[in-house]
Amino acid sequence: MPHPSVKPVRATKKHAVLAVSCYEYKNVLGIPPYNEIAFTIAVDVEKSKSPVLLPLMTNKFSGYFVFSMPVTSKENCLRGNVIWGLPKVTQEIDIDSSGDEALVTAFEDGKEYFRLRVPKKGKRTKMDQTTYLYPKLKGVVHKAQTNFKGDFLIAKNLGVLLNPKKVPPKPFLTIGDTSCGRVLKDLRLCPMPLQLRYVEHMNACFDYYDESYELK
User: Fold this and answer.
1) Radius of gyration of the chain, Cα coordinates, nearest whole angstrom
2) pLDDT value at position 58?
3) Is the model more confident about 54 or about 68?
4) Contact 110, 168 (CB under 8 A)
């Protein structure tokens, strides 16, 4: 965590919440299209302890800490590093959503280390949400607002909370043996996702961080 006051949200007593967001930005103001993966941990900020599961069920937690964010655009990588303090790196990312599921593949120095499949099924849900990221820039933790709106297909697997070791018939996530892959393997991720979301079109906006915010 970037600061002692930033703590992971707990799904169970032994598990935190990892959110992996994969984006295909086709229309971006001021820069060419690019692909991006955000590896984030749901966090509570300046709270001594949050109840197990409750923040997730009520959607009342502070936001997310990004610990890795590969992108296909060098320009976007530099913007993220310098302006927001986001840990962006330039990598090859393929996103194929031509079939009945979206397949995201990321490569480190030409070697595949991440493969995620997201079936295009679930309960159709309109979402219009505001949340916050807590990046660290020049030793200081900031608070930046992010907004998204879209018509999502959401599939929930709440049973994983009772059986974290449950293995799906076909893997949703495959992790390779590279330096980036080993970081993900060290997190000991559950093989069954708690939730899967897919959306064809989404409007998103990421604001500059709140300059008046001060983390104690």
Assistant:
1) 17
2) 65
3) 68
4) no
| pLDDT at res. 54 | 63
Domains of the chain, first to last: 6-206 (2.40.400)
Q: What is the pLDDT of residues 171-187, one digit of tens each?
A: 999 999 999 999 999 99
Q: How far is CA 198 from CA 91, 150, 169, in A?
A: 23, 10, 20
Output the pLDDT for position 55.
64
With H, G, I as helix, E, B as strand and everything else as coil, classify residue 50.
coil
Q: Are strands 111-119 and 101-108 parallel, antiparallel or unpaired?
A: antiparallel
Torsion angles phi and psi, residue 50, rounded to 5 = -105, 145
Strand partners, 172: none
Using DSSP's 3-state secondary structure scheme, residue 53 falls into coil
User: What pLDDT digit, counting tens, does each position of 150-160 carry?
Assistant: 999 999 998 88
Helices (H), the chain: 54-58, 74-79, 179-185
| Distance in angstroms (rounded) separating the CA atoms of residues 141 and 133 | 10
Q: Which of 149, 175, 133 is nearest to 41 (CA)?
A: 133
pLDDT score for 165? 87
Question: Does residue 85 contact residue 138 with C-beta atoms inside 8 Å?
Answer: yes
For 103-126, b/e burial (b = at least 16 CB within 10 A) is ebbbbbeeebbbbbbbeeebeeee
